[in-house]
Amino acid sequence: MRTIALFLVQLAGVLNGDDMRIKPLIAFYLIAGFVFVAFSGRAEGMGAPRYLIAPFALLAIGHLAFLVFQAVRVSSRAGLLSGAALLLHVIAPAIFLLCLFIGLQIDRFSERYSMRIGDTLVKQVAAYEEANGYCPASLEQVLGEGQQLPSPILRASSFRLDGCTVWFESTLFTTCRRSTGSNEWLCSD
């Protein structure tokens, strides 16, 4: 019990800034992870901040591998402060990688839900093509009276028409397309 209390006191000292060497790295991982999640679920181009953050996943994985080695080394000694600092160094990149995973799941959900919305537009374009014998010039032609053009769940994206193909901008420089003759969406760059 005394050892656990001493460990918690040491950990609190690290959290309060007694060990200044770890604060910038921990702050970087946490801020970068939350920025990645904040910018998830939107159509992105070259200026997307997530493209600057994602490569640091390799750094975080390497950092965790190094920390596993360090944990084995520290476990053979009785250094409690090293253990507390090690714990914080493990938590920060783990939270960063978790944020990357959550951000990618938000993207996947947004893209799939946008496809569901687009499915109704593809059906309307197919009905227009069947009734008139040619593809509409714009999506507004297939909408009923008083209907507004739906938008994808992905922020900064919109549905567009190219012949009889409905498409929208997706994440990671991709566009998703589905023609009236196709049963599935095709996403490519």
From TrEMBL:
<protein>
    <submittedName>
        <fullName>Uncharacterized protein</fullName>
    </submittedName>
</protein>
<keyword id="KW-1133">Transmembrane helix</keyword>
<feature type="transmembrane region" description="Helical">
    <location>
        <begin position="51"/>
        <end position="72"/>
    </location>
</feature>
<keyword id="KW-0472">Membrane</keyword>
<feature type="transmembrane region" description="Helical">
    <location>
        <begin position="84"/>
        <end position="106"/>
    </location>
</feature>
<feature type="transmembrane region" description="Helical">
    <location>
        <begin position="26"/>
        <end position="44"/>
    </location>
</feature>
<keyword id="KW-0812">Transmembrane</keyword>
